[in-house]
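Question (not urgent): is this output format expected?
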Amino acid sequence: MKDLYAYEVKFIFDPDKLEVVKAESNIKGFSVSPIIKNNEITIAHTKIGNVEGEKGNLAI
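Got this back:
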């Protein structure tokens, strides 16, 4: 990664086979509660304030 400040990720899944229990990030900041609509889940996170973005190998 180079200068990751925020992200939004969408996944398609089978709700008959998978239940979303929680979503969290190790990056300091604010995460939006997962949005589940039909067979798609959206997860979003952002850092807060005047801080640098993340760099290097990250698990998001």
